[in-house]
Amino acid sequence: MKYLAVWNKLYKRENICNVLFEDVVSEDFDYNLKVFLKSKRAICVNDILYYYYQNPNSITHKDIIDNKLIKSRFIYSINTYANAVKRVEGHIKYEAWALWKLYRRMFSVRYYAKDTKFENLVEIIIKQVHNKYWKKVKKNNNLSLTQKSFMYFFMSFPQFYKILLFIH
């Protein structure tokens, strides 16, 4: 699943009954995880079935000025993904997916926290989360060697993440 948004998916009614959105950052991720854990199967279609328009003036695209909001987004973003890993424990394929998303989120948060007053706090949180989940990453056979190498490399050499973003 490349995109975590709920608006680009079709759900069976029985899979979404009694599944509620949490009031957290990245609520789509949390919601999809709950639904997919209830589902027996999922089908991905690579065809473009619709086009949409994003309003450049919407609140989603506005710069964030409130420092408390910035700090909470950094922390809750990582915590949401870490909680997803806990929620799928025992489901090896979902766990691999959740770990991959968690590490990618940590790299992204680290990048955006750089040169802010939250940089040190973010580094502490990332190190704690990494220490907690790295053994799971190493043991999970559904994560490719490339993914594990990517995770290790960018945890060890965070400055290269910026280069990757620039190249991409």
Provide an overview of this structure.
The protein has 168 residues and is mainly α. The protein has one domain (13-167). The chain has helices at residues 13-16, 27-38, 67-87, 92-113, 119-139, 145-156, 159-167. Helix 3 packs antiparallel against helix 4 (92-113), helix 3 runs parallel beside helix 5 and helix 4 (92-113) runs parallel beside helix 6. The longest helix has 22 residues, at 92-113. The chain starts with 12 loop residues before the first helix and ends with a helix. The model has no long low-confidence stretch (mean pLDDT 79).
Mean pLDDT: 79
> Per the principal axes of the C-alpha atoms, what is the gross shape?
globular
Number of helices: 7
What's the end-to-end separation, in Å? 20 Å
Briefly note the structural class of the backbone. Answer: mainly alpha
Oligomer classification = single chain
Number of separate strands: 0
Main beta sheet, described?
Answer: none
Question: What is the succession of H and E elements?
Answer: HHHHHHH
Spans of at least 5 consecutive residues whose pLDDT stays below 50 are none
Percent strand equals under 5%
How much helix is in the residues? 55-70%
Work out the radius of gyration: 17 Å
User: What's the number of structural domains?
Assistant: 1
